[in-house]
Amino acid sequence: MTHSETHLNSVKHHLADLLEGAVTAWDVVADVTVRKDQAEALVVVADGIAVLVTYRQRSTGDWQWALSCRDPQTEQPWRRFYPSALTMLRGLRAELAPDQPAFGLVITPSAVSL
Amino acid sequence: MIPITVLTGFLGSGKTTLLSHLLPHPEMGRTAVIINEFGEIGLDHELVETSEEDFVELTTGCLCCRLRDDLVLTIRDLLTRRQRGDVPVFEQILIETTGLADPLPVLQTLASDPVLAETTKLANVVTTVDALLGLSTLSRFSESLRQVAVADQLVFTKVDLAGDEAQQLRSKVRQLNPLAPQHSAIHGNIRPSLLLGSAQEQADPLRWLGYSVSDSVEPKSGQQNGNLGEAGPHDSTIETFSIVRERPFCAVTLTLLLQVLTEHCGAGLLRLKGIVQIEEDPERPMVIHGVQHVFHPPTWLDCWPGSDRRSRLVFIASSIQPRWVNALIETLDAEVRQLGSSQPADAAAGH
Predict the structure, then answer these.
(1) Contact between A21 and B327 using a beta-carbon 8 Å cutoff
(2) Per-residue pLDDT tens digits of chain B, which is 351 residues long
(3) Rounded Cα gap, residues B333 and A14, in angstroms
(4) Count: domains in chain B
(5) Chain B residue nearest residue A112, CA to CA
(6) What 3-state DSSP class applies to B288?
(7) Which domain holds residue A71?
(8) Exposure of A66 by Cβ count < 10 A (0-12 exposed, 13-18 middle, 19+ buried)?
(9) In terms of domains, do B199 and B237 share one?
């Protein structure tokens, strides 16, 4: 198994927990359905908004998260790309829990670098 | 570093009685006491007898709501006066919060002020629990849940008045906070040394981590150990769980993990303590300690305290699933390692 395959399998294996845990942390009621053959999941929230979350390798070799959705007001589909799980979760929260407060990590002043 | 102890507990749970009995004790000499009273006219300070070596600073209002700046200024002022010799050289500070205070903002304030961070260290959170009324209070007031959940030491008061419900209360409190030792005090009578650990002792992660070891948590798994589901909507799922990981953390993975946790659930992360094996320096464990989204500077121990070198993170949290934390760790770690493995190839391709 190549390094990329190992990497993808790891992400696929944890995708459901990653997304279900996130919506729980945001106090959002959502149904998360994960495709078994791909790193892809559909997150459907109670008011009907559905966001498709995908993780795949680009032709350039790097990996990318994507969120796809249909704008509930304009009905226009949109797709946004993110370089990391960190930024993807930010994007997903902005769609599903825009009123959820975001905090910044604060390390007390005499902090040393991790 | 001057240790700070926060004494909290719900209204009528015996904080002032406890304090009144603690202060005359020889072990409490050279203690600066700050009493936070709610309301324009404070009464509690009238009930506390002080000796020459204790000084009581009074504030009005609730520490957790609007007087956090006042708390910082009060402590800074005390430190300045101590340095100038205007007050006796106190060796510890004790803060009594109001019974309605959510202790989390207070802890955050103490941890995040640059001046206090240089000279003081949060040593202990002592929470009083009314053995007679505690069950009812826990089910009705989310503040009381949070006061119990973040405690380092728990003191049951009025145990002489409580009946069979006392054991049920202890069991519930144990579920909510299995890490904190439980003490009993009748009429506030308890030895200060049981409650007021030094900063060094408090910083010792072993007490918290002993919890995860003794509970035999499987590597890479989470375990939920407490759930009091009878309070307000934001506190209905306060839980304690631990994450144990065999594989060392990349420093970047740990940084990203803390960033995600604090960003997405800062208010729900009541406390997090951990001892972590860092891949870049595996012989020296790193100790982390956070309250909500504020973390103390990570510290390095000279060596591992025992043969167990697994990373162990202990959470007291609301709305945070252990399996989410595991998924975060694995996903972030996969990304970091993938990026690390691709960079040399990319660099080579670029040349």
Answers:
(1) yes
(2) 888 999 999 888 888 888 888 888 888 878 888 887 543 333 344 444 443 334 444 444 444 444 556 788 888 888 898 889 888 888 888 888 877 778 888 887 887 788 887 888 888 899 999 998 898 888 888 888 989 988 989 999 988 888 888 889 999 999 888 888 899 988 778 888 888 765 445 445 555 555 543 332 333 333 343 333 233 333 446 777 889 999 999 999 999 999 999 999 877 888 888 899 999 999 999 988 887 787 877 888 888 888 889 999 988 888 899 999 999 999 999 999 888 776 654 444 444
(3) 12
(4) 2
(5) B297
(6) strand
(7) 3-96
(8) middle
(9) no
- CB proximity B323 to A under 8 Å: yes
Predicted ipTM of the assembly? 0.91
Q: Which of B203, B221, B238 is the endpoint of a domain?
A: B203
Please give the full DSSP string across B18-49, using - where no structure is assigned.
Answer: HHHHHTTSGGGSSEEEEEEE-SSS--GGGG--
Note whether B294 contacts A: Cβ–Cβ < 8 A: yes
| Cα–Cα dist B260/A90, whole Å | 9
pTM: 0.71
Whether residue B321 and residue A17 make contact (CB cut-off 8 A), yes or no, is yes
Do B211 and B197 fall into the same domain? no
∠ CA A18-A19-A21, nearest 5°, is: 70
Residues B213 and B193 in one domain: no
Asked if residues A17 and B324 have their Cβ atoms less than 8 Å apart, the reply is yes
